[in-house]
Design goal:
This is NAD(P)/FAD-dependent oxidoreductase. It holds the Pfam family NAD_binding_8. It comes from Streptomyces endophytica. This protein is of the alpha/beta class and 480 residues long. It contains 18 helices and 16 strands. The chain has 2 domains: 181 residues, FAD/NAD(P)-binding domain (3-Layer(bba) Sandwich), CATH 3.50.50.60; 252 residues, Polyamine Oxidase, Chain A, domain 2 (Alpha-Beta Complex), CATH 3.90.660. The strands form 4 sheets. It has a 7-stranded mixed β-sheet. Strands 9-2-1-10-16 form a 5-stranded parallel β-sheet, covered by helices on one side. A two-stranded antiparallel sheet has the order 3-4.
Length: 480
């Protein structure tokens, strides 16, 4: 039976209208609370905003673009997001990774088709990813929640964990071809950290397994559709959103039974102020952020002229060369050095969602992994990576805009120093962030919770940080 809070305590406030703040708000509103969301920007969405750029009709995503963990989110899968306009679109090839020989590894939603395309490494790919892909729904349900609890499927989780706890270099050693090693290595690089450390295999293993189950889709009409769908669900449940409101202190908020903060830990510490216990304040203010991203948005006539055909059909292309080159670049950014050949994630969302293009001019976005707070210009290095695998790209670019790490943070205060993943992915913080605690969402102040990507399970447009934090708040209120 659901226990309702008293009439005088049936309200909730959420600060921040990114995907986690909105997911938290929907969870609270659907549990019967009256929810108000305050967002500092003039539009909702945080990391899932979209808009025209460079030319009329060219639609770009401001940050998050491809949503394997969004489509696979245990929470979003329970919501009727389609009724509020969210439609997933898949490209023919989810991911391609070109190598210097001119070939490319290609990741399809189909495990069999992916393995068949990897030739001699096909059997190794099946052995490594077959079981996790088959268990993908069970695994996402488990790893996208706090891990300090008794799992529902301990054997499956343990089998996954034995591989996930290894260095990514160990798993890459199972492959013989540069195509397979690069394909795995590019996904492993989503860790934003050294690939030879403990548990460095975990991120790549989980994303590939989820990709074989859910694919790597984009949101039709731009990633902002995710925020609009969550906002629609919130409104339908009686909640409301106020934009253009910057919250600097809890004292600005109306009385509420619970408050959830979709903020970076240091910002949350500032908002909570002297009420925050000293041990929590130390953890929040010393919270370690990860390497950063430097973004290019390109208007490309006729698309990028990739040498490898698979790249011309792939929604996402990873540029980094062979596994050893990727590992070296990630090691350098982790040490605060800018590599000559940075790892790039290229998004060609228009292949799945043609409405983003303007005739034969197509929007192409790319992120380079760069050191935290990098204050240089990565444009030349990024374009050189394009030319390496797609000679003639420069001649097709009709317009270009670069977004530095500082500009990323100005556009979204949670991207501290250009860190778009909510914190450094160390072996400890992969499972327990932003501090060691039984409830990672609790701030130590009764009724106040943290729900940003700096809480488990981390970055992504999956809404799980917000949903998990809201569930924690509801348990404290006696709402089940």
């Amino acid at each position: 039976m659901t226990k309702r809070v008293g009439r005088e305590r049936d309200t909730a406030v959420v600060v921040g209208a990114g995907p986690n703040g909105l997911a938290a708000a929907v969870t609270l509103a659907q549990a019967g609370l009256k929810v108000t969301v305050f967002e500092a920007a003039d539009e909702i969405g945080g990391g899932v905003r979209s808009g025209e750029l460079l030319a009329p009709g060219l639609l770009f995503d401001h940050c998050s673009s491809t949503h394997v963990m969004g489509a696979g989110s245990p929470y979003l899968r329970t919501l009727d997001v389609a009724a509020h306009g969210l439609e997933w679109c898949w490209p023919e090839i989810d991911l391609a990774h070109p190598v210097d020989s001119g070939g490319a590894g290609a990741l399809y939603r189909s495990l069999a088709r992916t393995a068949d395309g990897l030739g001699a490494d096909g059997p190794a790919w099946r052995r490594l990813f077959g079981a996790p892909a088959a268990d993908a729904e069970v695994l996402t349900d488990a790893v996208m929640k706090p891990l300090l609890r008794v799992p529902r499927h301990p054997v499956r989780l343990a089998r996954f964990g034995l591989r996930a706890l290894q260095p990514a270099t160990a798993l890459a050693g199972r492959f013989r071809t540069e195509e397979a090693r690069g394909l795995y290595g590019g996904v492993a690089a989503h860790l934003f950290g050294p690939l030879n450390g403990p548990a460095a295999a975990s991120v790549g293993l989980m994303i590939i397994a989820a990709g074989h189950r859910f694919g790597w889709p984009v949101a039709k009409g731009g990633s902002a559709a995710i925020a609009r769908a969550l906002a629609g669900l919130l409104t339908a449940a009686g909640g409301r959103i106020e934009t253009g409101v910057t919250i600097r202190s809890l004292s600005q908020l109306p009385p509420a039974a619970t408050v959830l903060l979709d903020l970076a830990p240091s910002a949350a510490a500032a908002v909570i102020g002297d009420r925050l216990p000293s041990r929590v304040r130390r953890a929040y203010t010393r919270y370690r952020h990860g390497p950063a991203a430097f973004k290019l948005d390109l208007a490309v006539e006729g698309g990028v002229p990739w040498r490898a055909d698979a790249c011309r059909r792939a929604g996402t292309v990873h540029l980094g060369g062979g596994f050893a080159q990727i590992a070296d670049a990630e090691r350098q950014i982790h040490r605060g050095r800018m590599p000559e050949r940075p790892f790039l994630l290229v998004s060609q969302q228009y292949l799945a969602d043609p409405g983003r293009s303007a005739g034969d001019v197509h929007p192409v976005s790319a992120y380079a992994h760069v050191p935290h707070g990098y204050d240089g210009d990565a444009t030349a290095a990024m374009l050189a990576q394009f030319e390496r695998f797609a000679p003639g790209t420069r001649e097709r670019i009709l317009g270009l805009t670069a977004t530095s790490t500082a500009e990323l943070e100005r556009g979204n205060a949670n991207f501290v120093g250009g860190d778009i993943i909510g914190g450094a992915n160390t072996p400890l913080t992969l499972t327990m962030r932003p501090r060691i605690a039984l409830d990672p969402y609790a701030t130590g102040v009764p009724g106040v919770y943290l729900c940003s990507a700096s809480t488990p399970p981390g970055a992504g447009a999956h809404g799980m940080c917000g949903h998990n934090a809201a569930r924690s708040a509801l348990r404290a209120l006696g709402v089940h």
